[in-house]
Amino acid sequence: MTKEKCFILGIETSCDETSAAVVQDGRKILSNVISSQVELHKRYGGVVPEIASRKHIEMIDIVINDALEQAGMTLEEVDAIGVTYGPGLVGALLVGVSTAKAMAFALDKPLIGVHHIEGHIAANYLEHSDLMPPYMCLVASGGHSHIVWVKDYKQFEIMGQTRDDAAGEAFDKVARILGLGYPGGPLIDKLAKQGNKDAVHFPRARFEDGSLDFSFSGVKTAVLNYIHRLEQIGESYDRADIAASFQHAVVEVLVDKTIAAAKKAGVNAIALAGGVAANSALRELMVKKASEEHMKVYYPSPLLCTDNAAMIACAAYYGLQEGMEAGLDLNAVPNLPLLSSNLPNWK
Amino acid sequence: MDKNKIRLVSKSPEDTIKIAYTIGKYLRPGDVICLGGDLGAGKTAFTQGLAKGLGIKEHVTSPTFTIVNEYYGMMPMYHFDVYRINDPDEMMEIGFDEYVDGDGISVIEWAEKIQDILPPYYLNININKKLEEGDNYREIVLEAVGDKYRPVIDQLLSLFNIIH
Predict the structure, then answer these.
(1) CATH number of the domain where residue A23 is located
(2) How many helices (H) and strands (E) does chain B have?
(3) Are the C-beta atoms of A36 and A135 separated by less than 8 Å?
(4) CA contacts within 13 A on the Cβ side of B45
(5) In this complex, is the C-beta atom of B57 within 8 Å of any C-beta atom belonging to chain A?
(6) Which range marks the domain in which residue A107 is found?
(7) Three-state SS at A150
(8) What string of pLDDT tens digits covers the 347 residues of chain A?
(9) Which of A8, A247, A265, B144 has the most other CB atoms within 10 Å of its CB?
(10) Residue A220 lies in a domain
(11) Would you list which residues of chain A are within 8 Å, Cβ to Cβ, of chain B?
(12) Are residues A165 and B62, on separate chains, in Cβ contact within 8 Å?
C-alpha cells in the first residue's frame, strides 16, 4: 500500500458474537464493538443456531454503525472490508459475509475473506507490537484446538489438532457434568482456584506415534466415571478438586505439545489465542514451562481472546498487503480448513 | 426375539470402534443412522469406527459447533450433532434434506430433537452404559426402523453370531 494510513472495517459473525471493528494499519484498534449474545445462549446451555442467525441480522447494522462512529469515520473512509467466511455456523456466517459483500460492492472497496482461526492468531498483533512471525500459536476455543506454526503473516502449517472434541468443548461438557452452567471455561477456571489440581489424576491422551494431536473426549468420560464411582459407593466429592484436576489435565497437554511443536520448528516465541487462551492456569503454566526453554509467550487480553472483529480486521490487513482480495462470489464455508494455499480466494 | 433388533456388548472404547467398523462395512449409500447415548457413552468412538469402516482417513471431530461435518471415503459420511437445534426448520436451513437424500451415510446424534423430519426408514443405534457391569461396559442396541434396514440387521446378526 502506498497510502499512509490504511483503515480496515472488520466483521465477525461466525458464532455467538456480532462484532464490527475499525483497525488502522493492522495493529491499532480504533473501535471494536461486540454485541455479546452469551446472555441469550445461557438459557439453552449452548449455541442455538437459529437464534444466532436471527440475532446477527438484528444486530449487524447497529454494530457496524457503532464501530464507525467510535472510530470517528465514515464508511467511505474505510480502505477495505474484512469478514470471517468460515469455519462456523453457516446461517450465522452468511449474515456477515452477505453484509460485507454488499458494502464492498456498493462502495467499490476491496473485500478480504478471513479464516476465523487466522483471526484469533492475529489478535496477538493488536497488543504486542514486537510480535512478528515466525512463532508457534496455540489456538484453543469451544470449536477449535490447533497448534499452528505461523511462518509468515499469511503462511501457516498445522502441527497438531484435536482428533475429537475441542478443548473448550471439554470445558463446557465438564461444567455441565459439575452443574456449573455455560460457558464452562471461565466457571471452571474460577472454581479450580479453590481446588487441588493434584487431587485426581485424569488421563492425558498421548498417541503412540508421538503426534502433536490432541484428544479431549476421553478426559470428559474419565471425569464422569470418577463421579459415578463415588456416587455409587455413596461418597461425596469436592467439585473444586475435580475442576482443578480436570483443568490441569487439559492445560498440561496443551502446554507440553505446543512447546514440543515450537522446539520441532525451531522457533522461540509462542502465542496463545482463542477463548481458552483466557484461562489463567493455561497462561501460568505456559509462561513457566516456556521460560525454562527460553521462549517468550504472548497472549491477548481476555476481551481479544473471545470472538471479535478487530482480530478479523487485523488479519484482513495482512491479506490486503498480499493482494489476497476476494471476489463477490465469496461464500460462507462452515468447515473451512486452515491452509495457506486457500486463504482466502484469489480474485 | 425381536427380528428388527440386535444387542451387542462392548467392554472398551476399542471394542466400540471395532463393532462400528464392522457395521460401516455393511452400509449402503443413502443410509441414515440415528445414534443415541448419554454423555461419555462412546458416540464419538462409535462414529470414528464407522468412518474407518467407510474408508475415511480423516479424524472425526465433534460437530457440536458446526452442526454437521462432512467426510469423504469410499462414500461420503455426514456427521450431525443436533443437540442445539430447537426447531426442525433450522435443519432445513443447513440443507438437511439434501444430506439425507444424498448418496452418503448420515449419522445423526440427538436425533430425537428432529423426530418430525427424520426419514421413514433408519437404523437406530443406542449405546447404553451399564455402570453396574463396569465403567467401560456398554450395550449397543441396533434397531431397524422400517423394513429397509431389515437385511442389514440380518447380515449383522449372522456375522456377530459367528464372532461371538
Answers:
(1) 3.30.420.40
(2) 5, 7
(3) no
(4) 23
(5) no
(6) 7-123+305-321
(7) strand
(8) 445 799 999 999 998 889 999 999 999 999 999 987 556 566 666 666 666 678 889 889 999 999 999 999 999 999 999 999 999 888 889 999 999 999 999 999 999 999 999 999 999 999 999 999 999 999 999 888 999 999 999 999 999 999 999 999 999 999 999 999 888 999 999 999 999 999 999 999 888 788 999 999 999 999 999 999 899 899 999 999 999 999 999 999 999 999 999 999 999 999 999 999 999 999 999 999 999 999 999 999 999 999 999 999 999 999 999 999 999 999 999 888 887 544 444 33
(9) A8
(10) yes
(11) 15, 44, 46-51, 53, 87-91, 142-143, 161-166, 169, 173, 176-177, 213, 217-218, 220-221, 224-225, 228-229, 232, 334-335
(12) yes
End-to-end CA distance of chain B: 18
Residue A347 lies in a domain: no
CB contact under 8 A, A89 and B90: no
Q: Is residue A66, in this structure, part of any structural domain at all?
A: yes
Same domain, A46 and A193: no
The answer to whether A165 and A173 have CB atoms below 8 angstroms apart is yes
> d(Cα A154, Cα B70) in Å, to the nearest integer?
26
Whether A203 and A284 map to the same domain: the answer is yes
Which of B45, B64, B68 is closest, CB to CB, to A169? B64
- The answer to whether residues A232 and A150 belong to one domain is yes
Exposure class string for A277-307: b at 16+ Cβ within 10 A, else e: bbbebbbebbbebbeeeebebbbbeeebbbb
Q: What is the dihedral of CA A181, A183, A185, A189, to 10 degrees?
A: -50
Model-wide pTM > 0.90? no
- Estimate to the nearest angstrom the gap between the alpha carbon of B29 and the chain centroid: 14
Beta strand extents in A145-262 (DSSP E only): 145-152, 155-161
Domain co-membership, A281 together with A310: no
Residue showing cell 466457571? A187
What type of residue is A273? A
Q: Is B12 on the interface with A (CB under 8 A)?
A: no
Do the domain assignments include residue A266?
Answer: yes
Query: What is the ipTM, given to two decimal places?
Result: 0.78
Same domain? For A170 and A90 the reply is no
Count: domains in chain A: 2
Among A87, A164, A176, select the one facing B66 at the smallest CB separation.
Answer: A87
Asked if A67 and A93 sit in the same domain, the reply is yes
Pair (A229, A105) in one structural domain: no
